[in-house]
Design a protein that fits this description.
Layout (H helix, E strand, L loop, with lengths): L23 H20 L6 H24 L6 H18 L4 H5 L5 H12 L3 H4 L6 H13 L3 H11 L3 H24 L5 H4 L14 H11 L10 H16 L4 H17 L5 H25 L13
């Protein structure tokens, strides 16, 4: 007997019924969706995208519950790819929608001066300005390539876990990553920071010229960015810590590679003028907090929610 729900033995194996049809991944997506709707309500009268965003969020809400219901009735491994891709698509859609909320919510508020002054109080000079003395084209080229590689690191880990059929580990990894992403996204609304590439542009007298790929990669990265107010905390440093920790726990064969890449990419965040050092430090701190929160929440509540993926029985 579990919360009034009885197990029924039948000739066909069925998943154990749990109190909620949604998964913890659904819950964290719903939580972030509610936050976005809250920001939309606050900006509704001044936001030219209000009706479009409200319609989009309604579609996302219905999709989460619709897919959860479908998953509850189609508990076979062959649908796991659909359950994975749908969660990722909803995540990307909500992320991209931030561009229609964040600039309107924060207006002209910026914290760049405060964070730059804190960096200067520690180092005596802005780290991105100091690094101009070590800029040269071949290093710039390599660091832009590695900065771009960052975007594939969570994807590669997810693919490896999915390919190996490690669906519980995959669910924990996605849950941890989503908590990390969403927490940082929310902070952008309250601590909007453009970063040194904009705020300190007048002090950056040495151009970041590469060889072949630097400029197209820089343009592509700028194109994919829904907002320039996304520096504090550094989600790059935060995700690098999280994905490296997940690799250590669930896929040790790539841990050393991820560790080396993470160290170099974190260096590139300052060299390429995307972040203040304080951004990076707080990003790493948020990574530790999100890993802890994800572990505690999953340990305490996963037995009350349906699994996001179907785990094959032996």
């Amino acid at each position: 007997m579990h919360l009034g729900l009885k197990k029924v033995r039948t000739s066909k194996m069925k998943p154990v019924v749990k109190p909620f049809i949604v998964s913890l991944i659904d819950v964290v997506n719903l939580g972030f969706l509610c936050v976005l709707i809250g920001f939309l309500i606050v900006t509704y009268t001044d936001n030219p995208y209000s009706n479009v965003l409200m319609a989009l969020y309604l579609v996302i809400l219905l999709s989460i519950f619709g897919i959860a219901k479908y998953r509850n009735h189609h508990q076979t491994v062959k649908y796991n790819l659909f359950y994975l891709l749908s969660a990722v698509i909803l995540f990307i859609t909500m992320y991209e929608s931030i561009s229609g909320l964040l600039p309107i919510f924060v207006g002209n508020l910026r914290f760049d001066a405060m964070i730059d002054n804190l960096d200067k109080s520690v180092f005596g000079i802005s780290p991105t300005v100091w690094m101009q003395r070590i800029i040269f084209p071949s290093l710039t080229e390599v660091l832009y390539i590695l900065y771009f590689v960052y975007f594939f690191m969570p994807v590669i880990l997810v693919i490896l876990l999915y390919r190996n059929g490690e669906f519980k580990e995959l669910e924990i990894s996605l849950f941890t990553l989503f908590i990390n992403y969403y927490g940082a996204y929310i902070s952008y609304f309250y601590i909007p920071v453009e970063g040194p590439r904009y705020y300190l542009a007048h002090e950056h007298v040495v151009p970041l010229d590469g060889i072949f790929l630097s400029e197209p990669l820089r343009d592509f990265i700028n194109l994919c960015e829904p907002s320039t107010l996304d520096c504090f905390p550094s989600l790059h440093s935060s995700i690098l810590v999280v994905v490296t920790a997940l690799a250590y726990k669930f896929y040790p064969r790539i841990f050393k590679i991820y560790l080396v890449l993470s160290i170099v990419i974190i260096f590139s965040l300052v060299y390429l003028r995307y972040h203040y050092l304080l951004d990076i430090v707080f990003g790493a701190l948020w990574a530790g907090i999100s890993i802890y929160l994800a572990h505690r929440i999953f340990s305490l509540f996963s037995n009350r929610f349906n699994s996001h993926f179907v785990v094959p029985t032996l």
